[in-house]
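Q: Here's a chain of 370 amino acids. Please give me its 3D structure as tokens.
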Amino acid sequence: MTPVSNDPATATGSHAPTETADMEAAWLALDKAIRAADRILLSTHENPDGDGVGSQLAFNEHLESLGKECRILNYTEVPTIYEFLDPHGWLEVYDPERDGAWLAACDLAIVFDLGNFRRLEAVGRDLCRHNVALAAIDHHPQSDFDGLGGKLPYRYLILDYSASSTGTLVWEYLKTYRSEPLTLTMAEALYTALVTDTGSFRYDNTDERAHLMAIDLLKAGVKPYNVHRQVYEQTERSQVSLLGVLTNNLQYSGDGRIGWCALTQDMLAGAGATRKDVDGFSDFIRTIKGVEVAVLLTEVDGDKTKVNLRSKGNLAINDVAQKLGGGGHPFASGAFVEQPWGEVIEILLPLLEEKVKTMDNVGEGAISGS
């Protein structure tokens, strides 16, 4: 593996970085920067998930214990199912007028679970405009630095594709560099990160490392059902109505091995739902017998579409997401495309149909893309 430079003068190039080769040295450099900084901003991608939220909350509590002036500023609101993780009210939505001056004076910004730098939206643009030192902790392949002229934006980069969650990396850092034991609130936040990114330990990224982390967090006081109940047993009636819309509009392609659905703004409005309510729907499509690849298109507006791709594990689909300007994991990827959903599906289906044809000639087992 090629080491990622922590020198911003040399961290250039249009190619996505590989995993951090010397993890110990990278963590040491970041820890030194953290201890030298007075004001630190934490953020994650728009439409935060359990991994991003749990990682930043656990890290923020650690920074608070070090006496740092720190804030969590995200571009969009956090789903209500994760509010139980934030008893202190640390999660904020970034407002440039209110928060811009504070952001500009930060010594360091740490972003979690990002993959694509553009997913920081205004938070990322303002951090770059004010030349705030950037650090990233992530387990996603990195993509799309074109907004910065192809220049890699991070001074410190912790990147480990083998980690089942970004929360795993945060847990490892805290177990190594934190002098005090994890608090219960930190442990619950990290357990949520782990559970949501492993599909409650069902996905193929679940490994020994994930279970060792879970054991440690249970020792710290986590009650698994308390977390499961908050995250998975809070379905809104609007989401149930929208699920009915989805099932009535499901379509199949590629001899039934591609299941897909497009949810328009009118469909969401008719169900009394919002885009937050589609969370988990692509995973639902993936569970259908015979479906190898699930596709969910959500209309953001008439000319913008959110794409979620999920694979059962026999076909890697992140290369398809990359062709749409997105990225992600081999079996869970996505993109935001500046085109209407009808145009997007016309591009997407031929790519996926060609991919599923490879299964006719190749045995099962993580068939990769080109």
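Q: Can you summarize the key feature?
A: The chain has two domains: 23-231, 238-360.
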